[in-house]
Amino acid sequence: MNKYSAMFLVTILNLEQxxxxxxxxxxxxxxxxxxxxxxxxxxxxxxxxxxxxxKSINYSSVL
Length: 63
Hints:
63 residues, 2 strands, 6% strand
């Protein structure tokens, strides 16, 4: 994993943030129950795709 694939994952996790507002704490037990959909190939996360996607976004050179 590198910084580009990590940025992809952080963005996906931030999209789940709305579930944990108003008194629902994001505890470890609740975070373990989240099913996050990632791009995959052969049932393994496709980190190369994630990296290339982040690099293709405008202004990615300043990240």
